[in-house]
Every structure is written in structure tokens, then in C-alpha cells.
Amino acid sequence: MSAEPTEPPATVEPATAESAAEPAAEPAVGPEREVLTWTLLPVAIRELAERVVASGFRPDVVVAVARGGLVPGGAMAYALGTKGVGTLNVEFYTDIGKTLDDPRVLPPLMDTSELPGSAVLVVDDVADSGRTLALVMDLLAKQGADARSAVLYTKPRTIIRPDYSWRDTDLWITFPWSAEPPVTGAHSADV
User: Fold this and answer.
1) What is the pLDDT tens value at each position of the chain, 191 positions in all?
2) Which listed residue, 71, 128, 177, 187, has the most CB atoms within 10 A of its CB?
3) How many whole angstroms separate alpha carbon 33 and alpha carbon 103?
């Protein structure tokens, strides 16, 4: 059952006194983007969690798709009162608009032995092409889980429509947890 997402804002969110202390999430030059700030994130999570509850689905486990789904996955688990949390690390995007040929699951692998028959909510940041989400949903279905999906953003070209989505957009999205490059001396972005 897909919840109808609200319309995205016509423009990126302007800076306010409350968000002024946050690091700049929008690049100085470049294409228009959808910008999710640390201030707006709890609102998005709460609204998304309310859609899940309104549908009658009560997850036993939240599976966050790493890396983009880690922050929203943890926040959704808290908002839904779900203590069972797992992660599945999938790599697909390597840079803005650049992907591997196919998404791939990376180690460490999640123990799925307890999932058969469990209600599982898969959480990711965005269903862009939908290929990552489709891979995860297929893996969990093969494990016998009753899995549904929730994302913050859905793009029109996705091959799989998430069960729950906060907003639709066709813009590139800047998330607060990935707005800045890794710190100097850390792994490079292509590792």
C-alpha cells in the first residue's frame, strides 16, 4: 500500500535563524537541488512514521540501507518504537549521477536467520533508480520476511515504488549527513 507523498517545496529551503548554525548543505555553484536540513529531518521522519502507523503496518525490525539509510533508519526505529534494527550495506552510487553497473551488497552481511515471518521495514534515503531498493526487497522476500519500504524521497524514474515516501522530487538531493566531503585524511569518497 503506497502512501501519497506530499508535494516537494517549489524551491530549496531558505536559511532561517534556526538553521543558520547548520553547515551549508547547498553547493555555491551547480544545479538546483532538493535540500534536507538537520532541522527538517525530524519533521520528515515523524510524518513518514505516521504514514506507516496509519497503514496498520507494525514492523518488528527496521532494516536501514547503508549508507544513506542509516540516519533515517535509526530515526524511524525510534519514531515507531521498534527496537529490532539491522543494516544492509549496498553500494550503487559512486558520485552524483555515477553508478556501478549493478548494486552490490557489501560486508559485513546482516544475519537474516530470524527474519522469516517478521514484519520488516526497509528504510533508505531515496528511491532514485530504485535498483538498490529492489535488490534489498528481493533479498528479504527470499528470506521469508513480510517487508515494506520507506524512503524520504522518491524520484519519478524509480523501478520500484516504495510503500511509504515522504516526498517526490526529480532534483538531486543534498542530505545533511552527506553534504560535506570526508574530512581530510579520511578514506576518499571512491573507496
Assistant:
1) 444 444 444 333 433 334 434 444 444 455 799 999 999 999 999 999 999 999 999 999 999 999 999 999 999 999 999 999 999 988 866 666 666 677 788 887 888 888 999 999 999 999 999 999 999 999 999 999 999 999 999 999 999 999 999 999 999 999 999 999 989 998 765 54
2) 128
3) 24
Q: Which domains does the chain have, with CATH numbers?
A: 33-174 (3.40.50.2020)
Using alpha carbons, list the distances in angstroms from residue 28 to 25, 31, 33, 79: 9, 10, 11, 34
Instruction: Tell me the CB-side half-sphere exposure of residue 92, using CA atoms within 13 A.
Output: 20
134: number of Cβ within 10 Å: 16
Q: Report the C-alpha gap between 96 and 156 in whole angstroms.
A: 17
Alpha-carbon span 105 to 125, nearest angstrom: 17
Query: In angstroms, rounded to a whole number, what is the distance separating the alpha carbons of residues 162 and 122?
Result: 9
- The grid coordinates of residue 106 equal 557489501
Of 107, 119, 114, 108, the C-alpha closest to 60 is: 119
Spacing of C-alpha 62 from chain mean position: 12
